[in-house]
Amino acid sequence: MQSIRRVVVNSIDDIHVEAVEAPQPAAGEVLVRSTIVGICGSDMHAAHGRHPFMSLPFWPGHEVIGVVTGTGQAADGSLVGRRVVVEPNLACGHCDQCLAGRYNICATLDVFGCQTPGGMTDAFVIAADRIVPLPDDLEDDWAALIEPLSTPVHAVRRAGDLTGRRVVVIGAGPIGLFTAIAALDAGAERVVVADLLESKRERAVRLGAHGAFDSSAPDAAELAQAELGGKAHVVFDCVSRESTVALAIEVLDKGGSLMTVGVPAGKTLVDLDLVQDRELTIIGNLMYVREDVLHAIEILRKHPFPFDEVVTATFGLDEADKAFHASDDPEQVKVLVRVAEPA
Question: Which family would the database say this protein is a member of (predicted)?
Answer without folding.
Answer: Belongs to the zinc-containing alcohol dehydrogenase family.
